[in-house]
Specification:
- This protein is α/β, with parallel strands linked by helices.
- The chain has 2 domains: 2-103, Up-down Bundle (Glutathione S-transferase Yfyf (Class Pi), Chain A, domain 2); 117-248, Rossmann fold (3-Layer(aba) Sandwich).
- Helices cover 48% and strands 13% of the residues.
- It contains 12 helices and 10 strands.
- It has helices at 8-14, 16-28, 45-50, 52-65, 75-92, 102-113, 130-133, 148-156, 177-193, 204-210, 221-228, 240-243, and strands spanning 2-6, 32-35, 70-72, 99-101, 119-120, 123-127, 159-160, 198-201, 218-220, 247-248.
- Strands 2-1-3-4 form a 4-stranded parallel sheet. Strands 7-6-8-9 form a 4-stranded parallel sheet, with helices on both faces.
- β8 (198-201), α10 and β9 form a beta-alpha-beta unit.
- The two termini are 28 Å apart.
- The relative contact order is 0.17.
Length: 249
Amino acid sequence: MSLTLYLGCVIRTVHPEVEKAVKETLSRIGVSFVEQPEASCCAPCWFFSLSREAWLRLNERNMRLLNSTVVTACDDCFASLSDAFTILAERKSVKPPEVKPFQALLLERLREVKPRLGFTGLRCAVQHSCRFLRSSGRSLDNPEDPKIVKSVLEMLGFLPVSYERELDCCGGFVSDEKISGEMARLKAGSAEEAGADCIVATCSHCMLRLNPVSRIPVLHLAQLSAFSLGSDPVQIGFPETLRRRMVKR
């Protein structure tokens, strides 16, 4: 299987350990990929709110460059690219490139390859991002009872933990800093109260919002998958505190 990997801006600039984990995971589940260095920012929703046509023009260029199946490592990128490609393809009467989020691809491949896993036992609270579940009516999961990330965690040997504010927004795109900060604190606190060892996200913006207020680690799903598949925990930013809680298979 070969595809184009689109990492977006935040992962490349703020979370290099996530970039490493995404690439390690794809390689270990038999997915070959290329990157398109000339691709630009996909212009997330706040840019779209300023100028819809500028957002479309920017992604028209991306669509020319990303002309094969695209896998995204951030849910905001997934939503922005797939929404823009759909609109542009309708305008031009062409078939748009397929855009697939990392977690959906990972679930498909784990079912197929059934890799040998190294560890189990970590309790994980999932941060279900709004941009994955509730974007333009095109969600790949059930917004009221999401399963994809939890299914991946179970297949990797981790233990998904349900918590009271599981379906709440983290406040990542709320413009009022006081309100968004309180939303994030309530969400992180709810996960901790449920006994989670960590919060697992698939959106880099959710990570940016939750990390400063959470007393438990906030990790990208790729970091857990890469660790379980045998990657060096230091290189993928997997905390020592969590490694001590793991049970070797």
